[in-house]
């Protein structure tokens, strides 16, 4: 809450940066002003400062702003300092090759999934970097796998924020979500039945440290036609074996 923030001007500046997303990579001063309820002059001064520092840049074709190269530099630093990521990647690649599907690694952050990396089968080229990409906790396989073992207050916060319907299969009723999380705990893995993206299914499991705390999640994802019930069971067993190997080193 802003009332608890000691440097309110800095807080406003950071909230401006948070306006940019995958869905809205470019924004104008008016758009930011309306989204945050700030004066345009205030927004312009902050944005102009970010531009001069390299954190934002302006598109000359439409005069809108987008995140600058400085964030790529910082993301690279973060990526290189997430120790367990480097340790996990060989296991992810082995799993991706074994099941011929894409394998994802993500962490929970502020009620969302933040992807750290992905591995494709050796015969399939990677199409994009997943570092920093966000998705909902409640309707992705990797998100539900982590959410099922996170504190109840985290689940309540996710529900309070609103359960947006992405497909006809998205769980948007709180009680249904609680039932789904209980089923994940009983089964040992989550299933995303085209709940976030139509035509895509995935299964996920959480990664926990030696204290039993969820630190990340791993999922196997691919076209729904390739994820029959039998295949899901096979994938789950392979994923579980990899999870055990990784957790022994965490």
Overview of this protein structure:
It is a single chain. This protein is an alpha+beta fold and 250 residues long. 45% of the residues lie in helices and 19% in strands. It has nine helices and eight strands. The strands form two sheets. Strands 5-4-3-8-7-6 form a six-stranded antiparallel β-sheet, sandwiched between helices. Strand 1 (56-58) and strand 2 form a beta hairpin. The longest helix has 19 residues, at 229-247. The radius of gyration is 20 Å and the shape is globular. The model has no long low-confidence stretch (mean pLDDT 90).
Strand content: 15-25%
Low-confidence stretches: none
Q: Which sheet architecture does the biggest sheet show?
A: 6 strands, antiparallel
Shape: globular
Helix segment count?
A: 9
Main structural class: alpha+beta
**How far apart lie the N and C ends?**
34 Å
DSSP summary, beta strand count: 8
The helix/strand series, from N terminus to C terminus, equals HHHEEHHEEEHHHEEEH
Residue-averaged pLDDT: 90
What fraction, in percent, of the residue positions are helical?
A: 40-55%
The strand order across the widest sheet is 5-4-3-8-7-6
Cα radius of gyration in angstroms: 20 Å
SSE topology sketch:
Blueprint: H1 8-17, H2 29-36, H3 40-53, E1 56-58, E2 65-67, H4 69-81, H5 83-99, E3 102-109, E4 112-119, E5 134-136, H6 141-147, H7 152-161, H8 174-187, E6 190-193, E7 200-208, E8 214-223, H9 229-247
Antiparallel strand pairs: 1-2, 3-4, 3-8, 4-5, 6-7, 7-8
Helix pairs in contact: 2-3, 5-9
